[in-house]
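Box 3.1 A note on notation
Throughout this textbook, protein chains are presented in two layers. The first layer is the amino acid sequence; the second is a token string describing backbone geometry. Keep the layers aligned when reading.
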Amino acid sequence: MYSDYFGIRENAFSITPDPRYLYMSERHREAFAHLLYGAVESGGFVQLTGEVGTGKTTVCRAFLDQLPEQVDVALLLNPPETPRELLLGIITELRIPLRTPEAPLKVLVDRLNAALLAGHAKGRRTVVIIDEAQNIRPEVLEQVRLLTNLETRTAKLLQLFLIGQPELREQLTRPSLRQVAQRITARYHLEPLSRAETEDYIRHRLTVAGCREGLFTTGAMKQVYQESEGIPRVINILCDRALLGAFAVDKAQVDGPMVRYAARQWRGAQRPRDGRRGLWRGAGIAAALLLLATALVYTYRDEYLDLPLLRTLLTPALAAPVHAPAAPAVAEPAAP
């Protein structure tokens, strides 16, 4: 919508994981190196984790683009729910002929093993990547572990990559999954971008899209970092909405207030930290009421004090749910 207005060829901040826009920060380079290491070394698992939106999928797609032609890839974007679904997903991705999907589990494993042996004899390697691996059930992870037993005398036939959110790390610390954790030969946790990297990230994406310098002021990029906490997906969303807002009010640059407005509209009427402030305010009022009641009881303990009445007055205030005050609604600027 605003591309022509700002002189860019395309949307620079699409949330689609386009490898052309891959910004290789130091953290992303390290994650990429771990994936390449796993593709070269045979056996075991490679584990890549990171918060939602930190760029795991984008790094993974760039990694796939770098794999040589003799590498076969099975990419499972949705975590399988059963061992059978896992095996069928791998067999389907590798285009291995299968007479019937209803075959017993052992038959599926044997069919996969035969195809892998045939590929190994031709000098081919096989990589299995499971995305959103934090949602894999323990029994499926155990089947994944058993797949690492498919091997020749000198080499493993499968290299497995587990890509997921931080919960995957926590899951693999369970005693029941220690055999799976012991098979992990390389692991890396992808952290959000720093402030300097966030600014470089914004400039990089604008440059790839063919944009001129100075579209975002220094204050705007600082505000983007504060609002996004360095998470690339959130950076994209905020920058896209801020550009739309600048276009709507006929401004040539995005400044800090525009970014704050975009963040407020994206999150809704109220920021999460405002809710916490309201919660503490309500808790403080409740504590003050309790202190007042204690003081009254202590001061007039020898005199008549209508305790049932006092309890009747205080109970509703203490039992009422605490709500943060709602932020005023802000109208979207009308597009010209």
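The mean pLDDT is 81. Residues 3-16+193-267 form a domain with the Helicase, Ruva Protein; domain 3 fold (CATH 1.10.8.60).
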